[in-house]
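Bench log. Compound arrived from synthesis this morning; before running ITC I wanted a structural hypothesis for how zinc ion sits in the protein. Inputs:
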Amino acid sequence: MKNNFLENNYKWINWVTVIDSWKKWKNIWIFAVTHWNEPVWIEIFKYLLEDFNLKNKILWWKIFLISVNIKWYKRYLESWEKNSFRFIDDNMNRISNQKFKKNSYEFWRFKELKNIFNEIDFAIDLHSVSKWDDLIWITDEKFLQNWKNFFDTDTILVDKIWDTWALIWEFIRTWKESYWLECWNHLWNQSFKNGKKNILNFLIYKKFICWKINLRKNINIFSFIEEIIPKSKNFKFFQNYRWFTEIKKWEKYWVDWNFNYLNNYWDNIFLWMASKKINYPDWCGFLFKKIF
Ligand SMILES: [Zn+2]
């Protein structure tokens, strides 16, 4: 294994770095670059291999560092419009459960990686976002009870990942303990620190390494209610909502097709990722209820 995770391969599959304790039992996938414009992973992988020296600290089992989608990574690095480089043909996070498209690079890469899916017991997918707000773990409701063991974030989202086409779904649907980490803004150094701390916590919790775990006390846990899908091009939110805005019961929060929508749920709810630009008929926000 070279220290450069951009040059390693495993069973002829490129960009896969394996750190092996040679004491076999369980394996974890830490995978990143599902989207190219989220460069935080590079710092995190580098840190784990070079500064933290994972190779010498691993006690049990095997850790896979997977760079999911970096075929034209150089193009991304040289580009001025980095946010337009999220994937080549298809969004890697909408690929599970879909029919194989033979001309799509991402479908080809997905198929290649699928060859080693069955070697994996736990999976974490690393992401970052374009906004400046919460640090979030996302998981399926079946793994929520584990949050006290390793989460060091402001927020946890419990989603029905079971119903999505996200890459992490591949593991969730086979009952493998899996999580998705949004480490904060793409380009901010704090994202690297957030990601690194949470990944180490997980590795300690699962006994891949022995270290001290840092946990946060005040964590908000939200559970997914629904995706907001505009019914017309005239959709508009009443305010410039930030992430996780509380919407009071009976409060009006958007207008669509000249009809005002109000919160007629049982209680106050939370609006997340309200889009400024509406891409009708694509989603433009998500609704959550607070459960903790
Ligand atoms: Zn992403």
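What the model suggests: The mean pLDDT is 89. The pocket of zinc ion is lined by residues 34-35, 38, 127 (CB under 6 Å).
ITC booked for Thursday regardless.
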